[in-house]
């Protein structure tokens, strides 16, 4: 951000919150795929392309990781529509007439998608990773075990902002 002159400095001094996008906190190569489990018979390549399309439309930090695994080309991703962020659960969107869900257990259960028992999530979280489920057309397709790492400079700057008493709002 940039501000100009005394008035700009005065306005920024009164700031008590900043807004950042999730993709700014977790840019390319900070979300990594550790392991993947296939949950049903499905075309894994198509599932990744559809998930990448929805993640791209949602401006999600998962996009780069999904796109890399899909080994796709940006122009060849299907068109994703009606993207929704579902608070603390994940994202959903539509590819033609099929719903794509990317998120946690609560998202899947909320949409009636049957996934493995919850003790699996606990093991993944205990190991320091995050379970991300992908469902396509109401079928559970993938369990992705991901890690998020914070760029040292971004982490340092966010801590400094928080230490100043400024609230950080994350647009996800």
Characterization of this structure:
The chain has 172 residues and is of the alpha+beta class. The protein is built from 7 helices and 8 strands; from the N terminus they run αβαβααβββααββαβ. The strands form 2 sheets. Strands 2-7-6-5-4-3 form a 6-stranded antiparallel β-sheet, sandwiched between helices. Strands 1-8 form a two-stranded parallel ribbon. The longest helix is centred in the first third of the chain and has 14 residues, at 44-57. The chain is globular and about 60 Å long. The mean pLDDT is 86.
Task: List key phrases describing it.
alpha+beta, two-stranded parallel sheet, single chain, 172 residues, 7 helices, 6-stranded antiparallel sheet
Computed structural class: alpha+beta
Low-confidence stretches: none
Largest sheet, strands/sense/barrel: 6 strands, antiparallel
Report the C-alpha radius of gyration, rounded: 18 Å
* C-alpha geometry: globular
Helix percent band: 25-40%
Give the ordered list of helices and strands. HEHEHHEEEHHEEHE
| Number of helices, counting only DSSP H or I runs of 4 residues or more | 7
Give the overall average pLDDT. Answer: 86
Secondary structure topology:
Elements: H1 5-13, E1 17-21, H2 22-25, E2 31-38, H3 44-57, H4 63-70, E3 80-86, E4 90-95, E5 98-103, H5 105-110, H6 119-126, E6 130-136, E7 139-148, H7 152-163, E8 167-171
Parallel strand pairs: 1-8
Antiparallel strand pairs: 2-7, 3-4, 4-5, 5-6, 6-7
Describe the structure concisely for a colleague.
With 172 residues, the protein is of the alpha+beta class. It has helices spanning 5-13, 22-25, 44-57, 63-70, 105-110, 119-126, 152-163; strands spanning 17-21, 31-38, 80-86, 90-95, 98-103, 130-136, 139-148, 167-171.
């Amino acid at each position: 951000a940039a501000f100009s002159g005394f008035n700009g400095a005065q306005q920024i001094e009164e700031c008590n919150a900043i807004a950042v996008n999730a993709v700014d906190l977790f840019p390319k190569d900070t979300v990594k795929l550790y392991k993947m489990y296939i949950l049903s018979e499905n075309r894994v390549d198509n599932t990744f392309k559809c998930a990448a399309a929805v993640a791209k439309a949602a401006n999600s930090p998962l996009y780069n990781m999904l796109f890399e695994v899909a080994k796709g080309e940006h122009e060849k991703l299907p068109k994703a529509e009606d993207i929704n962020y579902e608070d603390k659960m994940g994202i959903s969107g539509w590819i033609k007439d099929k719903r794509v869900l990317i998120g946690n257990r609560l998202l899947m259960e909320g949409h009636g998608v049957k996934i493995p028992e919850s003790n699996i999530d606990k093991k993944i979280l205990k190991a320091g990773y995050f379970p991300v489920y992908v469902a396509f057309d109401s079928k559970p397709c993938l369990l992705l075990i991901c890690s998020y790492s914070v760029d040292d400079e971004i982490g340092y700057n966010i801590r400094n902002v928080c230490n100043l008493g400024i609230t950080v709002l994350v647009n996800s």
